[in-house]
Amino acid sequence: MRVVLAEDQFLLRDGLVRLLGSHGIEVVAAVAHGDEILDAIDEHRPDLTLLDLRLPPTFSDEGLRAAVEARTRAPGLPVVLLSQYVEQLYVQELLATGDSGVGYLLKDRVFDDVQFVAALRSVRDGGTVMDPDVVAVLMRRDTRRTVLERLTARELEVLARMAEGDANSVIAEKLVVTEKAVAKHINSILAKLDLPPSTTSSRRVAAVLTYLRG
């Protein structure tokens, strides 16, 4: 996997380059300034772009703006935003750029390099991965009166785990049920959300997005 990285803090940027490299991921460009992101993406055509949300010159939303513009130019370009905070509006803007290949992770909740790299690969492959705190904030919206009301409490719990990027085996372990039970819940979720027949992976992404946008 080839990655364009944008992070203004030298130690974190260098650390990410080393960490990703140890997992066989090539950082083709590591920039520190918001104005450099789009040029790096245009030049290297990466498989994924990993962006700090707040970058110079204003330290506001340069990473988000670059992500939105990049996905406008190249629809579906996988993008993962790194932030220290849950910015609900920013999450919604990111999700509005497309139905696949997006992630929003919190820096201080990345505790495991294997899980972090797995999340990046999932987004690269078209998945949607959100930190559990991001999911929790989105769930507190008052506008959730949607098709999600068709789901049972257990199905919503499974869908929340899916939104966090968990595989069926991990969901089964966390909920103390069998993988077969998880698969049954997911099939029910997909049916209740009226998702058109397609590949299982794309229906799964669509279900997660329905949940996050609920």
Q: Could you walk me through the main structural features you see in this protein, from its secondary elements to its overall organization?
A:
With about 210 residues, the chain is α/β, with parallel strands linked by helices. It folds into two domains: about 1-140, Rossmann fold (3-Layer(aba) Sandwich); about 140-214, Arc Repressor Mutant, subunit A, CATH 1.10.10.10. It is built from ten helices and six strands. A six-stranded parallel beta sheet has the order 2-1-3-4-5-6, sandwiched between helices. Strand 1 (about 1-5), helix 1 (about 10-20) and strand 2 form a beta-alpha-beta unit. About 35% of the residues are buried. The mean pLDDT is about 90.
DSSP E strands, number: 6
Uncertain ranges: none
- Counted up, domains total 2
Order of helices and strands: EHEHEHEHEHEHHHHH
Q: What is the CATH class designation of the largest domain? A: Alpha Beta
Helix content: 40-55%
CATH fold-level name of the largest domain: Rossmann fold
Broad shape: globular
Mean pLDDT: 88
Q: What strand line-up does the widest sheet have?
A: 2-1-3-4-5-6
Portion in beta strands = 5-15%
User: What's the CATH superfamily of the largest domain, by name?
Assistant: Response regulator
Please state the structural category: alpha/beta
- What Rg, in angstroms, do the CA atoms define? 17 Å
The number of helical elements comes to 10
